[in-house]
Structure formats: structure tokens, C-alpha cells
Amino acid sequence: MEHAKKIAAILLEKQAVTLNIDAPYTYASGIRSPIYCDNRRLIFYPDARRTISAAFCEEVKPFAPDVIAGTATSAISWAAWVADAFDKPMVYIRKAAKGYGKQQLIEGGSIEGKTVVVLEDLVSTGGSSLNAVQACQDAGARVLAMIAIFTYQFAEVMPKFVDANCQFGFLCNFSTLIEVAEERRLFAPEKLAIAREWNRDPQNWGPSHGFPNEAK
Ligand SMILES: O=P(O)(O)OC[C@H]1O[C@H](OP(=O)(O)OP(=O)(O)O)[C@H](O)[C@@H]1O
Ligand SMILES: O=C(O)c1cc(=O)[nH]c(=O)[nH]1
């Protein structure tokens, strides 16, 4: 990925990436991890925003979708900037249908019969992004691709997207992030080694280090 090192540098410079070995983070899926990548921080910085939006646009362009979709909440702003750049309609996809009002799962407008590219800020297990893809398909759209700023490269993710008949794209991944962090000597080498160890077996790292995964 040509964007990968540039985006990794941004994630590190804006301190989106943090390590906590003693009190590992709990992810949306319930798994425990010594590393967290808080891409929500990136919207705060106009320079980061411009670079990441431009990278998203490069990846989205070949698909020429009718609609740009963002997953709630973290990818809503990215979808808005990208949709604006292409002068295309935008929707966002809730994690669950709203329990009152119009009870919608997808907000913005109808995507029935449209081609869609879904944007996501981060993929760990892929559960959230695949739910969003499924929601768009259930609404009658053809989802051409799901593109995330960052992926942890969990082995199970690619086959799930193949099954969903949806291309999977990303701007940066775990290997590149760790490579750039090492080059820049931003974290103690032993902490980065633990992050690598976690990434080799993320489901079992927590339980085997005294941090049970949480049921979600
Ligand atoms: O690939 P997964 O295992 O599903 O995990 C990744 C998801 O978790 C985070 O969302 P979170 O649930 O924290 O919600 P937010 O975007 O509203 O902050 C992140 O923004 C992804 O959507
Ligand atoms: O899987 C998650 O919930 C998750 C991991 C991560 O590093 N950052 C994030 O925002 N969510």
C-alpha cells in the first residue's frame, strides 16, 4: 500500500497509537490488547484530515460508487469529507437501528439499487464493518468495497469479506505501523515486541497473560 507509511507516521505523530501492557485495552469484540489505535483523534488535525481524506479518495475513485457510506460513529466524518470531494450522496450506518423516532439503521437516504463504498476507521475482527456491509446489502445496495484507515491484519478478516462478496481495502496496517514506530524509536523495543506477540494470536494473548477476554 503506497499510503501506508505516510498514514502510519500520522497515527504516531497525532498520538492515536498507545500501548498499555499492564492494563490492556478491551476492544469492541471483547478481546484484550496491549495496543490501541484511537483514530477518533485524527479529525482534530486539519493536516491529518486532508492527508487521510485524500488517501481515502484515491482508494475509492476506481470504484466510482453512487454513494459513500460511513460506519457510526468513527467513520461518519470521513464519509462526509469523501462524499463531498466526489460530490456524491452520503449515508451513515448505525450499529443498531434507532429504538425511537424513525427507527432507521441507515441514515441519510435510500441506497436501494445503488453501488456503495463503505468507509470505516479501524478493523480488528471486522465484525463492525461486516455488519455495516450486511446492512447496506439488506437495504438493496451493491457494496463494492469496504475501506478502513487501519487494520490489525487478523487472519480471519479477509475470508469474511470474500464470503460477503465485498472487496476489503485499507490505508495502513499493523505491520507498517510497527515498522514505522521502530524506525522512529517511539516506544521501548520490548513494548513493541509485546504488541507483535499479541498480534500473532490476538484472541488468546489476553487469557494467556491473566487478562480474560470480555463477552460482547
Ligand atoms: O473490527 P471490530 O472488531 O468490529 O472492531 C473495530 C470497531 O471498533 C471501533 O468502534 P467502536 O465500537 O469503538 O465504536 P465507535 O466507532 O462509535 O467509537 C472501531 O471504530 C471499529 O468500528
Ligand atoms: O477493536 C476495537 O474496538 C478497537 C481497537 C483499536 O485499536 N481502536 C479502536 O478504536 N477500536
Automatic annotation (TrEMBL):
One of its GO terms (molecular function) is orotate phosphoribosyltransferase activity. Orotate binds at S124. Pathway: Pyrimidine metabolism; UMP biosynthesis via de novo pathway; UMP from orotate: step 1/2. It holds the Pfam family Pribosyltran. GO terms for biological process: 'de novo' UMP biosynthetic process; pyrimidine nucleobase biosynthetic process. InterPro entries: OPRT, Or_phspho_trans_dom, PRTase-like, PRTase_dom. Its cofactor is Mg(2+). Keywords: Glycosyltransferase, Magnesium, Pyrimidine biosynthesis, Transferase. The keyword Glycosyltransferase applies. Its EC number is 2.4.2.10. Gene3D superfamilies: 3.40.50.2020. 5-phospho-alpha-D-ribose 1-diphosphate binds at R94, K95, K98, E120, D121, L122, V123, S124, T125, G126, G127, S128. Residues 59-152 form the Phosphoribosyltransferase domain. The keyword Transport does not apply. Homodimer. Catalyzes the transfer of a ribosyl phosphate group from 5-phosphoribose 1-diphosphate to orotate, leading to the formation of orotidine monophosphate (OMP). Belongs to the purine/pyrimidine phosphoribosyltransferase family. PyrE subfamily. This is Orotate phosphoribosyltransferase.
